[in-house]
Queue: 2 jobs
Job 1
Amino acid sequence: MRPILLQGHERSLTQIKFNVEGDLLFSASKDHVINVWYTHNGERLGTYDGHNGTVWTIDVDSQSRYLVSGSADNTMRLWSVQTGKCLYRWEFPTAVKRVSFSDDDEQIVCITEQRMGHQGAIRVFNINREEGTSQSKEPLAFFNPIGSKAVVCAFSCVPNLIITGHESGKVALFDYKTGDEVQSNERAHSDVVTDLQLSDDRSYFVTSSKDKCARIHDTRSLMVIKTFTTETPLNSAALAPNKPYVLLGGGQDAMSVTTTSLRQGKFETRFWHKIFEEEVGRVKGHFGPVNTIAISPRGDCYASGGEDGFVRVHHFDETYFRAKPYGDLEIEE
Amino acid sequence: MAPNGTTQNGIDEDIDYSDLEEKYQVQFDEGFDNVVVVDGVPVIDPSKAEKLLARISKEFSKKGAPVKPDDMFIPWDEQTGKSKGFIFVEFKNADDAAYAISAVHGHPFDSKHRFSLNRFTDIERYANLDETYVDPEPEPFVQKEHLRAFLADPQGRDQYLTYRGDEVEIHWHGKPSQSEVAYKRTNWTDLYASWSPLGTYLASLHRPGVRLWGGPSWSGVQRFAHPLVRLIDFSPNENYLATWSHDPIVVPEGAQQGPQYFSPEDEGNNIAVWDIKTGNLLRTFPSAYPEGEDGAKKQQMQWPALKWSPDDKYVARVTPAQQISVYELPGMGLVDKKSIKIEGVVDFEWCPLGDKDKEEDLKIATGKSNKKPRENMLAYWTPEVANQPARVTLLQFPSRAILRQKNLFNVSECKLYWQNQGDFLCVKVDRHTKTKKSIFCNLEIFMVREKDYPVEVVELKDTVTDFSWEPKGERFAIVSTSDPNYGNPAPGITIKTDVSFYGLERSKGNFKLLRTLPGRTSNTIRWSPKGRHVVLGTVGSTSKSELEFWDLDFNNDDISKREVHKDESGNGIQHLGTGDHYAVTDVEWDPSGRYLATSASAWRHTIENGYAIWDFRGQEIEKQILDRFKQLLWRPRPPTLLTKEQQRQIRRNLKEYSRQFDEEDAAEESNISAELIAQRKRLVDEWNAWRLRCKEEMGPERVRGPAAKLEQEDEDKEEIEVWVDEVIEQIEEEVAE
């Protein structure tokens, strides 16, 4: 499995995303630029320029028409994937830490940072899909989650409900219509939740945390289904489609990297068996912590973005699809 | 003021102050705490009263409790007109009274009279005591658990303890299927845990003191109240325990009293000795710090500060440069009421008891042998002072006869290493050249079992950093180095070392180099407790962490003959395997000598904490990387109860046994894989059931996500291939033939 090294960023990666077909890979970084790449050869297709701060988060809709991004310049922008033009920008009092499209691409949820006297807020916007440049400035819903601040979020499979991951390690469900916390699991993690990725049908999701664990939760009950315990703080977790694997990435904190050797850093991407909770393999390569992992929705390749500024795209070998390390077991998606 | 007062009084009359008065009423002395009853005073006529009181006053003053004759009161018997033979004395306050009681009580007034003092308040209490005798309720007998029940494990497994975070776990260690957690408890200990030397007790350290645990249910067996205890040390036969705390003992007012608690005399001491069975405190000591150099060079306290004789008969401590004090157990009295005065003494070690010695002792104790019981032996050394050479001495105790003395020159440091059977004593002598610039090493080996204690010298050019005897063997291993970096530790530098094995040549009676392994980084030697196998480890380094497994009798397959043919040539030294445990801090053999545990403890660093278990060939059996992992300890086993004959029998029939075990292993293996497959099947079934439930709950429209839809679209799509030929340019070229 020879990776393609994408060297288009000057600073560490914050989030990478595949489009639904898996032919395009979007990457956001602290160098203010969003790049889009062809996955099959690693050629850069273009950039989305305009942000004046770290781009913390991106998401692409299921038709690959619109891209939304959130940045430390206190704006959230909507881009045309095809032309690279910025269609609309929303301004907020603080940085945008997380954005996510809804299932039907009609809505966006975003989290703004708790800073400078402003509370952390979650906003939901309706997207005018017909005319990309004319969007409503005002959010459809706006609320401030009480308690520990929210750091990651996504639409759930239940209408009106948003899943959030919090700094305290809490995972919760909010009804955005009312702003009420519908369901919560205070002890989902014991440290900040770093990533939250949903299964294809949004009925379960995986979270990673600095507490060195990743967990699969049931979306409706927030019950912990599986736990994957590693020996390093985790920054990202992704669910492999069609295969019973979970991909975990992390490593020593960025600030202590310079004082630890490569070996101690544990900058590998780990493959864990989703059901048996056993580690099945590791992929080395990054020389800094892995910040973000994404898997193509078709399940034929995955990419990891690191603190080292590189994105590594791995196309799975034939053996990955053929291998049945645990024998013939029918596992439901 | 008077008129004012009256008017106020007039107002006051209406108000009820009684509650306030009650609250703020001045608490007068109850008045009797400072009164003492002095009994044993001569019976006198009133005429002599003044004289007597003056005399008593004088006696009291002599004892440091002055009292005026006016403060004494003599009760008179009205019928006889004489005194009643006791007087009341009033002191200024209760403290003075208490002091007087302690000072004057039992004081002989004259040949016939002796004072006995009591508090006045006590008299009343004693007088009212119920005189009828009540039988104390006999406590019902509770069968105690067998403290060594773990030895009765049908599979003969060993136990080990792990301490991680706040959780202490006791594990069984056997074949993979037999390895399981036997017991676990959170916050079992506050500092660390420790086994007793024979594995009977588990000690945990807490703020209030030490607790011992044991038996299959791990109930508390004993407790020792030594607040802020930091270090503990068991006696070899688990009869006594020494504890140390950095903070001197303080006995607060109203502290619990009794044989198990500190009394005011113990205040200020740091070391305490306890009887394990009763829990009683035997004696306390102050910590002995090397004198004279505290300011410039604060030397670390040596622990164990008290050294037990191998038979638990004595415990000794050294006062550096002055003496060795030996106390008998359990009385803790100084033997012969005097210490062994040795000018300049630095360190000493008791000679351990060999298996044979123990058998002998047992015979004498049971009356089967009428030999004279052997005496204990200890070795100590004194450094060079002025014109006197350094000296190593073997001393018999309690007869205090010097058995052997050897003078040494140019000595900078000595270390005493007894072989665990007490057959040999190796003194590792660090010597310096005349210029004191370089250091080299001599090994002075005392043959303790031979007549006149001959000394064999092994001279080495390098510095020896570690020395270790083969248990029950006649071989030893050393780690030596000539690395210039030795002695100036710098981060990232691993000292290059050589490891050498030496063995005793029986015919010549000297120690011969068997083999040297040059260019290693190993700094730790760990012999298997049964001898023969040895592990060389690089411990505490950040870059290297190699473990080398060696067999010293590789050619001797037949274990039954091993006893007879000891390989003296070193040909049998064979490398078995190499392992690597990153950032290892501790290396420990299990008591059977079959497995080795290595651990990386969070007490030393926070990188990849956890532990690994290896077999003696260097095959990794288990590895656990656990956050906040602190400690792994094998549970020691007491010596075997099988007789020599029985052991020989087993060794002879080893083939028979091993066939049986092989069969068990094979059956087990197939069992495990079946179990594992079943377990996986169960997990998959659970997962599938959950997924199915999810899908039902969500309804049909939500079942397919975007990616799944995509796939469907793929299937629905009709593939149309269109070939487009686009002519960009047409050039006709004429080619000349």
Job 2
Amino acid sequence: MLKGKGLITVAGLTVGALAIILMVFGNPVNMGLCIACFLRDTAGGLGLHSADKLQYIRPEIPAIILGAFAAALVTRSYRSVGGSSTLTRFLLGFIGMIGLLVFLGCPLRMLLRMSAGDLNAWVGLVGLIAGIVAGIWFINRGFTLGRAVRQNAAHGYVLPGIFLVLLGLLLFNSTIFLYSSEGPASMRAPLLLSLGAGLVVGILAQRTRMCLIGPIRDLIMFRDPYLMFGMVGIFIAALIGNLVLGNFTVGFEGQPIAHSDGLWNFLGMALAGLSFTMIAGCPLRQMISASEGNTDSAVTIFGIILGGAAAHNFGLAASPAGVSPNGQIAVVAGLVVVLIIGFALSGARVLQQRRVTEGG
Amino acid sequence: MVNTVDCRGLGCPEPMLMVKKQIEVQGKGTVVAIADSEAARENIKRLATSQGWTVQVEDRDEEWILTLTK
């Protein structure tokens, strides 16, 4: 049976292929799977923002969570833990999401855009790497959000429970939610396909610990390529899919659901890269970790959802026309806040270790 | 005395970073690491193995004791 690098490579190829299949069957172009976009659409579907083109409870989200939850239970890797700077993680998720929506996509969508020839996404990748390098700089200076502690197993059931209820309502009482009739959120793969794909992604990502911040971080910090096999797998499968489908145009201008303002593509992803490095993983990883019982990650997901709502309520998110002044101010302000958090918590690990030593 | 690195409750990449520092400082001998997540366990195992240490994993009440020797 496959394991290690082989398994995560196959998982990456599968996730990339599923993203292409979801796009073919109705999800938006270069957005077959995007955790940030889908959490933002979910926020819209719940009425948390009023961008009427971005409202749909994307079934992929509860499916990924429930798939990962089931995989964690079956393999006995479920552990309810929490209490590691929970509110700070909420804030970093919130701010990181604004960066993602200024770029227009999470690292997963960045890969899909890169594989379709969207050069703006390659600029985003450079920004993401810059943000991760800044995060590593803080981590090497002793930045830590502290230890999580074991909790009663029931606490970890809350998040999968919430999304199970959401899925139940979507299936059996769907009229209570908002649905876009035009724009990206009106583009939907069939419900059962979205659910099936989400379940597979959740299971594979849980078993392989797939992440799209970790690959770059681990390669730089430890020359450890393990997670990179998954990231490259996603890219290669999506590249092949896009080439076969003829959805491959190299250029900056006119790319689907993208803008070509290089500075803000760079800075948006740099902000996201730094924020998500501090909380130890990309939005997909946060969802998987939350499904495995990490209640800090669960709270982070609500930070991401509310960050998405704020980004649209206050005009911070970019559109294909570009990035608004509000969005530019928000990115700069976000960078300032995240840097303050970074400096404030640098050296925290040294204190923590000293305490352990002195204590025993 | 065997040095113990307690990685419980820490998120990536802190467990790897702490173990890496310890095995670099020591160079050889025995290092014990305690992990309480699959991610930390696998990451420590991979890191130590890549640096030429042998790793023994003991499963103890939802925690793992990793004994690294070189």
